[in-house]
């Protein structure tokens, strides 16, 4: 399919034409009666899966069904942090694959996603945490991932505005991943959508899946707000709504949905040039190109499918932020919003086929799924096309909880609200 290539030259040319030459970035097709693969969910993961199915495996008779508009879910609501600083072998190679895909994403998609490898630094506040970060950094290096352990003075030279002598949470050092950073979240949805559409994938917005039709036990298609659509394979990538969609096939998932809020402040002069993550509470912050501080904290702590949270968590996040950066107490918050997190029982995701024929699952991203978007799509496409898991997702199986092979990165046990 022909699609307009974006370049400095195309901007120049369209400037001369008074910007009348731009075409729609993707089509708005009517659903066909049948597809080889239907993907439920036009978030980052669903759209990335469609792109890699088409690009890597030549499978283009694919539809992405989205109940709202693409980017209206978590992909457009997150705090945009990407990193691959994981400890466990079940996670680390996967997130590193993702970071490598981020590094080439804009060229791959011919789309400016504002990938900014400005560095991610986890601050540590006591001896045992310093030892834990040392261990994590060593594990990362053993996997070929960049990691630097910083002492207090090194952190101070990078982030002089932290409260180094806080009586409860003195800063002792940090774990830095320079290749981590931020990516403009909704541009990721748009870039993947445009690239998948250009290869022939149908992206069908305002099409809610309301039922999963099975014949002789096998999935044969979905009931939607726009009628029945048949398929050979059904791929669920519905993030916070995973449990509700899977329940349409009588599948009960080891997932709870919780709301997570994020915040942006008024625009400030640039002073945070990396991503800073508090080690003694839940708080992480970066500064957007417009100057706003983009920050978040913990989930609200109760099960919910609502995309808004409560004020107690706003207070909790603000307290943690001010404990780390006292100057924040004078900053005004401009906006806040919430998204629905599919919290798995061990804090790690699931990319697997289910016991129901033709039904595949991509879920359990908790609040770390944005950074996983490229690898998630890449590996889910691999599973759908080849019928076997990609090597980096070998442990991300649905039955790992029954078998006792949890991937519990934080060692917290089966407590989805704590991961
Ligand atoms: C406030 C916040 C901050 C976060 N910060 C980060 C971060 O800094 N770094 C990070 O790595 N991760 C972060 N995350 C997590 C990350 O955003 C998610 O894990 C990830 O985006 C989930 O995958 P997705 O993009 O496919 O989800 P979504 O964008 O939510 O896509 C799922 C889609 O499925 C659609 N859908 C649901 N049910 C149906 C149905 N029945 N029919 C059709 N469509 C349906 C939804 O409308 C939605 O568009 C954050 C999340 C939030 C909310």
From TrEMBL:
PROSITE patterns the record matches: RHODANESE_3
Reactions performed catalytically: sarcosine + O2 + H2O = formaldehyde + glycine + H2O2; sarcosine + (6S)-5,6,7,8-tetrahydrofolate + O2 = (6R)-5,10-methylene-5,6,7,8-tetrahydrofolate + glycine + H2O2
Cofactor(s) needed for function: FMN; FAD
InterPro entries found in the cross-reference section: FAD-dep_OxRdtase (IPR006076), FAD/NAD-bd_sf (IPR036188), Rhodanese-like_dom (IPR001763), SoxB (IPR006278)
E.C. number: 1.5.3.24
GO molecular function list: sarcosine oxidase activity
Gene3D superfamilies: D-Amino Acid Oxidase, subunit A, domain 2, FAD/NAD(P)-binding domain
Subcellular location, record wording: Cytoplasm
Key words of the record: Cytoplasm, FAD, Flavoprotein, FMN, Nucleotide-binding, Oxidoreductase
Domain Rhodanese as annotated: residue spans: 37-81
Family the entry assigns: Belongs to the SoxB family.
PANTHER family: FAD-DEPENDENT OXIDOREDUCTASE DOMAIN-CONTAINING PROTEIN 1 (PTHR13847:SF287), SARCOSINE DEHYDROGENASE-RELATED (PTHR13847)
Protein name (record): Sarcosine oxidase subunit beta
Source organism of this protein record: Mesorhizobium robiniae
């Amino acid at each position: 399919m022909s699609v307009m290539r974006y370049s400095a030259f195309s901007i120049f040319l369209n400037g001369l034409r008074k910007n009348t030459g731009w075409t729609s970035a993707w089509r708005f097709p009517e659903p066909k009666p049948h597809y080889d693969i239907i993907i439920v969910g036009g978030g980052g993961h669903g759209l990335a899966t469609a792109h890699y199915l088409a690009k890597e495996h030549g499978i283009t008779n694919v539809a992405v069904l989205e109940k709202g508009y693409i980017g209206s879910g978590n992909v457009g609501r997150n705090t945009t942090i990407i990193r691959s600083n994981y400890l466990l072998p079940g996670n680390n190679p996967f997130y590193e694959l993702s970071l490598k895909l981020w590094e080439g994403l804009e060229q791959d998609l011919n789309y400016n996603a504002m990938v900014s490898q400005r560095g991610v630094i986890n601050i540590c506040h006591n001896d045992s945490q310093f030892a834990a970060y040392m261990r994590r950094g060593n594990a990362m290096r053993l996997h070929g991932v960049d990691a630097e352990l910083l002492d207090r003075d090194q952190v101070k030279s990078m982030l002089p505005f932290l409260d180094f002598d806080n009586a409860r949470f003195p800063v002792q050092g940090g774990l830095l991943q320079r290749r981590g950073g931020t990516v403009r979240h909704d541009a990721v949805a748009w870039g993947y959508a445009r690239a998948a559409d250009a290869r022939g994938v149908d992206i069908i917005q305002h099409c809610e899946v309301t039922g999963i039709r099975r014949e002789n036990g096998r999935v044969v298609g979905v009931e939607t707000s726009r009628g029945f659509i048949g398929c050979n394979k059904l791929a669920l990538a519905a993030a916070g709504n995973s449990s509700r969609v899977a329940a349409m096939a009588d599948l009960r998932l080891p997932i709870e949905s919780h709301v997570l809020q994020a915040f942006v402040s008024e625009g400030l002069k640039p002073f945070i040039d990396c991503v800073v993550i508090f080690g003694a509470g839940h708080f992480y912050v970066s500064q957007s190109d417009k100057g706003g501080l983009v920050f978040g904290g913990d989930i609200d702590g109760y099960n919910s499918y609502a995309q808004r949270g409560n004020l107690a968590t706003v207070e909790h996040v603000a307290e943690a932020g001010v404990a780390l950066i006292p100057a924040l107490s004078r900053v005004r918050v401009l906006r806040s919003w919430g998204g629905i997190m599919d919290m798995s029982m061990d804090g790690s995701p699931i990319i697997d086929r289910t016991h129901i024929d033709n039904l595949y699952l991509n879920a359990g991203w908790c609040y770390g799924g944005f950074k996983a978007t490229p690898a998630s799509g890449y590996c889910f496409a691999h599973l759908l096309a080849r019928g076997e898991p990609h090597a980096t997702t070998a442990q991300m199986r649905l039955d790992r909880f029954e078998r006792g092979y949890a991937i519990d990165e934080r060692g917290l046990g089966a407590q989805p609200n704590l991961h």
